[in-house]
Amino acid sequence: MNIRTRAATPATVFLLAAFVLLLLSCISVPITKTIALGAFNGVAFGVFGYCINGQGCSAVQLGYNPNQAFQQANSHSTSKLRRKRDLPEHIVHLLARQQPRQGPGGGTNNNFSLPPSARNGLSNILIVHVIAGVLTFIALALSLIAHIHSPSHSTRFLLAIFIIQILNTLLTLLSFLVDLLVFVPHFAFGTWLVLAATVCNAVATSIFPLHPNPSTCL
User: Which pTM was predicted?
Assistant: First the structure.
């Protein structure tokens, strides 16, 4: 079985790049502490949870309460002042007032565009990053198979890959839109990784050959 370089090669390269970018976004905090989708006031957010600077990270979970992270950070800061500085109570309260203020319903006034209740609900949809990553990997594997002589001559096989890539591009775009809604305007590096993955998937979809081209080989 001969492996040939065909017109699917550029699309394969873009799919590989998109998969790596999505994988990095999926292993954001709390799985790793170096990549975050959003960050504000010492709290970094990822797909499966959050990390608080100097305090630790939440458990890896599907869906979480971003507002609760700020409440934990504020509580930790006040306790730290009392333990280490041994200040009078009125001084502690004065310093605590400089921390992010509590909004309606106990929410933190952290300048996010959406209210806490909406962001809590949207955090459950962050799982779409993983779905997009899995679908990108499937498209990548099928694109590699398309380099093999027999599948590369099948119009149905190439059309199936193209349809998967359209769905894949839409899911990656949805992942980026969810990041925008949940973390605007406090984006972090991970959100831009998802945007780059969206562009890579869109390019791969646009250049993938829909018809077999036996003469294209090296």
Answer: 0.79
Decide if 217 is inside a domain: no
Which class for 56: exposed (0-12), middle (13-18), buried (19 or more C-beta within 10 A)?
Answer: exposed
How far, in Å, CA of 66 to CA of 114, rounded?
12
Range of the domain at 166: 8-207
Task: Tell me the helix, strand and coil percentages in the chain, rounded to 5.
Answer: 60, 5, 30
What confidence tens digit (pLDDT) does each residue in 132-184 have? 999 999 999 998 888 876 776 778 888 888 899 999 999 999 999 999 999 98
Torsion of CA 202, 207, 210, 212, to 10 degrees: -150
DSSP codes of every residue in 100-133: PPB-GGG-B----SS-HHHHHHHGGGGGHHHHHH
Work out how many domains the chain is built from and give that number. 1
